[in-house]
Amino acid sequence: MNGEIIVETRDLTKIYGDGAEVRALDGVNIKVAQGEFVAVMGPSGSGKSTLLNMLGALDRPTSGQVLIRGQDLAKVRDLDAFRARTVGFVFQLHNLLPTLTARENVEVPMMGQPLSRSQRRRRAEELLSLVGMAGRANHLPNQLSGGERQRVAIARALANRPAIILADEPTGNLDSQSGVEIMALMRTLNRELGTTLIVVTHDHTVAHQTDRILMMRDGRIVHEHTVGTPLEEDLATFRRSGLGQAILAGDTVSLAGLSASEVAVLRRALERGGCPKFVGPGRFVGQLLAVVLQLWDTPGARGGLTPRWVCARM
Predict the structure, then answer these.
(1) Model confidence pTM above 0.85
(2) Which domain holds residue 133?
(3) Average pLDDT score over residue span 215-233
(4) Please, which residues have CB within 8 angstroms of residue 55's CB and are 6 or more apart in sequence?
């Protein structure tokens, strides 16, 4: 992990209940560097939103530490002022004030900052332009689509140039196309502005647009995955599929339609998790496609294979 550590937790624990206790977080240790784009996934009740609340100083842990840029949140006296300066929030429900225009909503977090009215207005207009909403600055939330409202919410989160942006299911209430556009916007902000983002999501498509995925279960981080290229991710999916597991295990019953050399080719690809190399020019595409298409046409053997996986290599 390169760069300054922006977010760190040390043995972070949150327990609810006086009788039968519930460990919403159970000794969580994470580090997020400047400019990272991280997704947190897991089933309902795994502790995702609780972790986000702790990182955003919306709740206090039972034990352990949360450090933002090295500052222990337990030692921060004015958490409201800290949040305003350091953390930007994007929620599943945009939480825009219904009687304020898009521009006025973006100005709200700046009210407590040492800025003049004209400076707040100028900053809000710059941010709305950044998220593609310059032409809708004077519209009320009920005059905007769901995707447009979420764009305004992202602009508002950026208002005070926060160290991190925390997003809780930012595409959860959007149609698929709007969700794609919002994630593309967040990725652009991450790459072009170096914005550090932590996103809670249940959507694998959303998570795989980030740099790193933290999987939670029962209040713990149980797995961490660095997101690779589309080819690497597809091969990883193939490796986890029933067909991929059959190839790796040498299950001759499931692979009755394949020759030993074809199984060997795919096994090598799956074991490496990357693009298989072949001796001789032009053999990679021809051999891999021939094998995959044969697998695709084999009843019951498709597993996690998708048309995108095949067509992207034609």
Answers:
(1) no
(2) 5-227
(3) 83
(4) 7, 9, 66, 68, 87, 164, 166, 198
